[in-house]
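protien #1 (seq + structre)
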Amino acid sequence: MSLKNTARDYGSIAKWLHWMTAALFLAAYVSVYYRQWFTEKQTPENMTALQMHLSVGVSIAVIVALRVIWRLMNRAPDDEPGSALAHRAAHLGHLALYAVMIVAPLTGYLGTGVDTRYFFLFDIPKFESTALFQSVVVDGFGLDFKTFEKPIDFIHKDVLGARLIWLLVLGHVAAALYHHFVRRDRTLLKMTSGR
């Protein structure tokens, strides 16, 4: 298997980045739902779950940055036979997924009210504690953190987290399964075994 993408398949690096992103998004949801459903607010267990969610979010941001760089440096495999409309829909769906993969960790970081203890190894200061927050948000827009946080949290939690990410991921999975079981083409195989 090639490290780089070919006309026929994704390379091993693209596959690793793809499946690592999927695993990290799953871990982000598990940690946040565990926190919401099974812990009491302001308990050590609740804060540990929050820190896991934040740490995974930072990891997603790093992996997605690497994915974007790798994608810009590599060709994509050729599209499977299909209509121009189907190809356009697939490309727009992928663009939407990339946008969400960038915006979700970004809004998560911008809107969090605590420092991230990255997997309990080191601290990443919250955005509110940075000079950028002071110069742009406070001095530039005249906003305090609470006012700034409200729309950011709405985007992160209510628009992306509760709805849009789920719809895009389910659509992505459904399309892959449709191509594999109904169209019987190589779309799913390109990101898995390559056979």
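ok now protien #2
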Amino acid sequence: MPRQVHLFERPTRFVAGTVGQPGDRTFYLQASDDSGRTVSVALEKTQVQVLADRMNELLDEVAGRASTIIPAEAEPDDLEPLTAPVDEEFRVAAMGLAWDGSAEAVVVEAVAAGDEPIDEEAILSDSEDGPDALRVTITPMAARAFVARARRVVAAGRPPCPLCSLPLDPAGHVCPRQNGYRR
């Protein structure tokens, strides 16, 4: 079966968000366009954090060497919840991130998990074979806004334990730094 690539060129919305309560949240990337089409893919909290960090680094690098004007920072311009219903197209196994110099845009690709390990060459390629993917092309300003929102979403979880940095449950947790005593 040929791969399905969900393409979004300059979507009206590209955000990271969650469904559920802290400690039991599912993280999503969600892209929407003018026609009302919305695609949601599930991923891990650490994947959202890494994507935000790498996107920020990419923009800083491009700003330092290209003639493109890239904003230094942006506030999240979209703090709305994910567009309902959130139907997971697939779970992300790998991601790719690139700068398209001709379009002066950031390209993000999230690739589905499959039965076999992901071939790195399948990410950001137009091959007919390979896992399903979500490919989004966004402006530098939209990328900075994505980074700001993604960092907020990640930080909105459970507070860390001051001793071991593991997340605290509302009832506390068994802290390894306290030899198993509740904190």
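Residues 45-65 form the longest helix (21 residues).
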